[in-house]
Amino acid sequence: MNPSSSLQAEFSLLIAKLILHANDLGYQITFGDAFRDKRVTYGHPNSTHRKRLAIDLNLFRDGEYLDKTDDHRVLGEWWEKQHPLARWGGRFSDGNHYSFEWEGVR
Prior knowledge:
With about 110 residues, the protein is of the alpha+beta class. It has helices at about 5-25, 75-80, and strands at about 30, 55-60, 65, 85-90, 95-100. Strands 1, 2, 3, 4 and 5 form a five-stranded antiparallel β-sheet that branches. A hairpin with a 2-residue loop joins strand 2 and strand 3 (about 65).
């Protein structure tokens, strides 16, 4: 089963707010993996990326790429407070992953 377009839109709006929050904290964001077409063979077969409920965000400060999970902690913990379905990948070794849980998949 697929999530409603209204849930996908709510996720997208909150991602926009996350990016603005990151900017307010002095970070810059670029997009990583977002929607995964069914032809993509990596990742969980029911990935929230395939449901348009997940995105991987690349984090920078002063031009430096911040690739550690801990670099995302402040944003991840903020994200988790924004919605009851909000999940941060730092809780499962994927620090730049921000999603809404869907059918038990983060």
